[in-house]
Structures are given as structure tokens and as C-alpha cells.
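Researcher: Let's try something more involved. This one mixes different molecule types, so please make sure each is placed in the same coordinate frame as the others.
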Amino acid sequence: MLNFFKHKKYPNFWKEYLKTFKTKQSKNINTTRFIVFDTETTGLDLVKDRILSIGAIIVIDNTLDVSDSFELYLKQDEFNAVTVEIHGILKVGKLIKYNENEALEKFINYIGNSVLVAHHTAFDIEMINAALKRMNLPKLKNKSIDTGILYKKLENKKDNHFNLDVLCKEFNIPKHDRHTASGDAYITALLFLKIISKLKKERTVHYSDLFRNQNSKGLL
Amino acid sequence: MKNTIAERILDFLKGYPPFNLIPKITLLEIAKNVEIHYFEKDQIIFSQNDNPHEHFYMVYEGAVRLYRFAEDKKHVLDICDEGDLFGLRPLIMKENYLMGAAANEETILYSIPINIFNDIILNFPKVSQFLIASFATNTRDPFSEKHKGKLFANIEAIKKVENNFIEAQSAKYTRNPITCPPSISVQEAAIIMTKNVINSIVVTKNKIPIGIITDKDMRTKIGTGLFKITDKAASIMTQPVITFPENITVAEAQIARLKHKVSHLCITKDGTNTSELVGILSEHDLNLIQGNNPLLLIKEIKLAKDAETLKYIRSKAAELTKGYIEQEIPIYFVTKVISEINTAITKRAIELSIKEIGRKPPVAYSWFAVGSQGRKEQLLMTDQDNALVFENVEEEQYESVKSYFLNLATKVTEKLNIVGFDYCPANIMASNPKWCSSIDEWKQQFKEWIKDPIPEKILLSIIFFDFELIYGNQELYDEMAKSVLKYIRKNQIFLSFLGKVTLDNPPPLGFFKQFLVEQDGENKDNFDIKSRAIRPLVDAARIFSLYHGLQINNTIARYEKLMEVEPQNKDLFESCSNSFKILLQFRTSQGLTNNDTGRYVDINNLSKADRLKLKSCFNPIKNVQEALKLRFKTSQIS
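Model: All components are placed in one shared frame. Result:
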């Protein structure tokens, strides 16, 4: 009952978002809409730090559509001078910036019920969830895939933590624009396609294989 | 809105043709609409005969093989690697894919929507030129019968751009010129001219130009009292007028004025003298086009007092060539203008030499250019190749006549050498007693070459089969040309020998499109563009035109005539002509850049664009050589 009332107060965009999950989703790798994304943040603290930018690109049937990519920068109240050196986003730059609420609304509209893909998804999704919480909204409902874990599956490696740089080198992906959300999203998308392809070479890969994890902790 | 991914794609695109020819802002729009496709090894991108996709492809990473099934066999036609474009032509032609494409290894492709690219083709002539160059190759696909004759001709969009391009270089003429009817009096016409401050008036009938009256006519026909000012305008007008279509280029106009010795050209709707007048192009208009104007150069040549002056003028002509090539003026016009200049220099050198001798030539003669100058294909300084023929004379006169011409030729070749045309190392010059002969001797010589074609002699004789009159008696020239064609008609086997020699230059690409480079010597690892690419096309054009008895020497003109004579092979000859133009332009710009003959090309220093451009010219070479083999049964000659 409480849930019902809570639902009532959701803004329209969230209602629309929830609706997208009512339609039956594809269970086929080639027809699934994957959204590969990345966030740049002021730091690693889920409570204190904030999202600086979100970049994302859609992958359907092994194809990336540049015209349908997503790139957005957020206004910040929190500002951590240390991380500026890494991502190059200054507090007051020339870019058009949105406040957190606007940015999240745009992002939610963009993703719908797509499967989210990121390198070390857990962190990016938690950052989004933290922002949603500040808006009094629940967590994301999307399925998600971590390219880091996918790679571990491929190589049957147990505990190593593979950062994006290492994987780019291994898969021969040029590392332009590392540490911009869009640049990393783009690189991750290429990585995602290459890992799936390599997995396919070894065995038949089913849609569900992408989500099954080897450690009990789960993807998030 | 910032688009990092599109910028990244732009960074890749801009490194490869034709995208390197597109301004960044436009290229970013393209990049924003690119799709990135991932293909596993052996995955099919499109199949032969599929309907065309809405985009074409560029290899970002990996490699793609293009293949075609013919006679139940799969032929791999090409391997595209990083930066290569494919799948564009069917989109422009609106036809199904001629070939299939599959990933040769794990591959990432950029796909570019054709609807965006169509605008680019229209708005950026350099892009369409690049495409024309790369399409030149496939005008005739050896595996496809049904696509014959519909490739190049159908590229309406590109054709349109090509026209625009010529227009951009076209001569600026005066539109809506002042006209008068033929029935008015000279006085009335003079009043109109004076009122409008013009030095010429076009006489028209129903808007069709029938004559022209210039200040000169007023001076020479009225001032002298030959006609009265009450006479009709028609009685003093110069007629007929020389007419040209609206898109006349500067080069064409200059050539026309040289040829017809007129000061004004009439521009009409369709270029004929039976269509409506739209403008007039005067000497003045042309002179306004400043700089090294070929007309002025030719004027200077005619007034030159010595070889040093000619040398100086020729160096200005070299600058002119450079400018033309940089402006990408069609090579056909460039060669025409430069050939006119070279011809004028030779003429002047002959005139000056006759003056030096102090005695007029004893009998009629003509001076020929042979080889590339004979074909009017010289752009850069090359060796002089020339010959002389004189009228038949009585035996007792022969020695003195011949010694006169040998003396003359020696003086002329000396002067040409000063100008910068090196002596021919093979001594194919009119100063050589062998190549300074009477018409009967020449006929005998050609007869021998044609009847008894042994390989060593053929190589030498080839150069003489491209002979062009430079100076002297036209009848002697015509007589000689006719007799050569007659001998060939009687001895068709000669063409088979000629073909055989030509085929000793194989098509310049090895398997997987590697350039065949020189194996040893000074030019090791360089590509010999002259003998491997240009010469085979020149040779083929010569054989086919000798076969048809065409009295044409220029390679482009030969191919154009052949397209008419053999409509069934129109696309083959058209692709050869296109390739030839590209190669000639290429060699010339190479030569101008490196200050040499442009003959040897260092493949490793070529840009990707230039390598693609060159490669694209090689298929027609292969095709025309195949055609030679079949037509002249060269395999039966051992």
C-alpha cells in the first residue's frame, strides 16, 4: 500500500521508465539493446562525491550508432580539485551543463529498459543510484553487464582486477579520450563487442551467459 | 553539444581520402552520423546481388575481402584494409552489389549514410574527382556482362559536379552583348558601338549570331573607302563567327583564338553557330586573366630573337603548367596548351635557323614531332624526338637538298637543346641523316617496318607511328600518314607483333594489389609510372587506332574516337582514357614537385590518397591488354 502511494508521487519520466519494463524484453544477443556507458565523478565516495559527466552509446546487433550517443555534463556543487587532473572537467567550463535532476532525467529517458554495460558497472550504477536517491527515487531496474567480469569469464581468471587500460592494450583498442565519460563508453563498447566475439569462438554464448557470474557476489 | 565520440571518428576519417578533402565542420556532421559495425572473421557484410544498403563502408580496423562468384567459382577481387572505402559505387549507381564483402579477419567498419554523402559529392568537386578516379577502374568489370556500358555514364550526380567544376574554371565572357541586325547601315552600327563604348558588335538574325563587326573592320573596310558608311552592316561584317558553348574554359578559348586567328569568340546556347547568342569573349577578356597567359607566351615566342629568349619563355610555360596542375585544370586542356607552346617554340627555332642559314629551303618539307610530342602529351621537359621529310627530288639534286635540311635540322636541334629539350639519346632527331629523308625514302622505311616486324625494329619504329606535323608542308604530311595506314591495312599481322611487344609491360599490380616496383638498379623499389602504367595505355591506343586507320596521335583523342568506332567497347576505352588522364596528371605533379621527369615514383612516400588513385588506374590497363591479346591474337606469335 505504501508502495502504491509512493508510486503516485513519481515524476512522469520515472513512470515512463517503469512502463518500459512491462514490455517483454529480447532474450537474444543480436536483438538486445545494450547501452554501454561510463560516468566521470569527483571521486570514489558514493555519498560525498558527485557525477561530473555521463557518456553512453547504444549497441544493437554488433553496431554502434554514433548519432544516437549520449554525452552530458553536470553542474557541480561538490568540487574536488584533485580529480580535475584526471578527467579535465573544471567546475566552470565552457560546456553546457545540467543540474543533477535534469541530467538524470535525460539519462533515464535515454536508457529505458536497455541492458546497461560498463567497465566495473557496479560503481557507475551505484553513483547513478545515489543521485536517484537524492531525488527520492528508487534504484535502477536495468539488467547490467560488467565488461571486467565478462573478461574474467573469457580468460577464466579469478581475482585479478583488470582496468580498462590493460584490456585496451590486450584487445588493441586505441586509448583516445581515456577519462572522458564518452571516450571511455566508446572504448568499452568496442571492448564489449570484442570480448563477446572471443567468447563465441570458444563456445556458444547464450544471452543468459552474459549475466551469470562466477563468484557468488553477483554483478552489483 | 559536445560529441566526443564523433570527434574521435572524425580524427580517423580525416586521415583518409576522400574525407581529407572535406572541411572539418562538414566532416564532423558526417562523423556524427556514422555507425560502427563489428564483424567476426568470415562474417558476411553484404552478398553479391543484394540490394544496396543505405550506407557505404570504411575499414577502421581489420580487413575485408571483396569477392565475386562467376562460373560457379569464387574470385577474391580485392582486400580492403584500414582506411579503404568499399560498397559506395552501387549506392551512387542505384544498383545491386556487384561483389560480396566479408570480414577477412575480425573487423570494425564505419558505415557512412549515403544521403549525407550525396550532398558532399555535389558540394565538394575534389571529392567527386577522387571518386571518379577510383571508379575509373571498375568501369568495366571483366566478370560482368550485364553491367557493361552503364557504369560511368550513369553517375548523374558526379557528371553534374564535373560540369560545375569546369564552369568554375571557365572563361569569364561578357553576357548579353550589344547586337544589331544585318540590315542597318554601317553608320548606325558605328553609332551604337560609340554610344556603348565597345570595340565590336555582333550582327544577329533572330538572336542567332551571323557575323561580327570590330573596330578593325571599320578601319580596314570603311576608313580605306572600300565600303561606304551607308552600306549595310552585313556587307562589312566578318563571317562566319567562331562559336563556343557557355562552359568554354580559358584554355579552350585560348586554343580557339590561336587556331582561328580571331579576336572575338561568340558564346551561344549550345555552342553551334545556329543557336542563340548568349555572350561574347574578347581578346581583352582573356588578357584580363593575368599571369602567365599562354597567348602572351606564344606572342612572345613569335617575336623571340634567339634561343635564350625561347628558353626564358619556356621556363614561364613550366610555371604555367605548375599552376594548372595545382588548380586541377583538366589535363586534356593543359596538355593542349603546353603542346601549342612547344610547337610554337619549335616553329620559331626553325624560322630562326632558316634566317641564320640565309637561304630559303630548296624544296617543300615538313618537320615532324614524333613520340610523346607527336602525341601532344608533353608537359614536362623531355627529350626532343623529331624527324624531317622533304619532297622527292632528282638524283643529282638529292645531295645538296639533303645537306641543306641536315644543316637546318642541326641548327634547330641545337636551339631546342638550349631551350631545355635534351638531345634524344637514341638520336631520333631530324639532324640524323636516317631521319631526314625524302618522302619516298620515308615510305620505304615504313613499308619495311610494317612488312618485316622484328622485335628490335618494332621498338624503334613505334615512336615514328605517332608523328605530328609541326611546321612545313601539310600535303607531304598527309601523304605520308595515308601511306602508313595503307601498308598496315594490307599487313594486319604487323598489329599482332606490335601488340606482342606492348604486352611485355604487364599490368602493374601484383597479387593483393602490391605495386610492382623495380627490382634493381638506381630506381630499386620505385614504381616506374611511365613504362608500367602510362606506356601500356599509350601503346594500346596506338594499336587500336592503327587497326581502324585513324589518323589521330593523341592518346585521349584516340580513346575518344575508339569509343565511337567500337560502341560495344565504349566503357573499356572510356576507363582507359580516364586512367590515362589521371596518370598523366599524376606524373606531371610528381615531376613538378621533385623537379624531375616524374617517371619514378617512391611508393612509400605516397599518401594513401595518391596510392589509391594510382591503384585505381591499373585495372583498365589489365583489361585493355586482355582485349589486345584477343583481338590481335598475340599468343600465336612466338
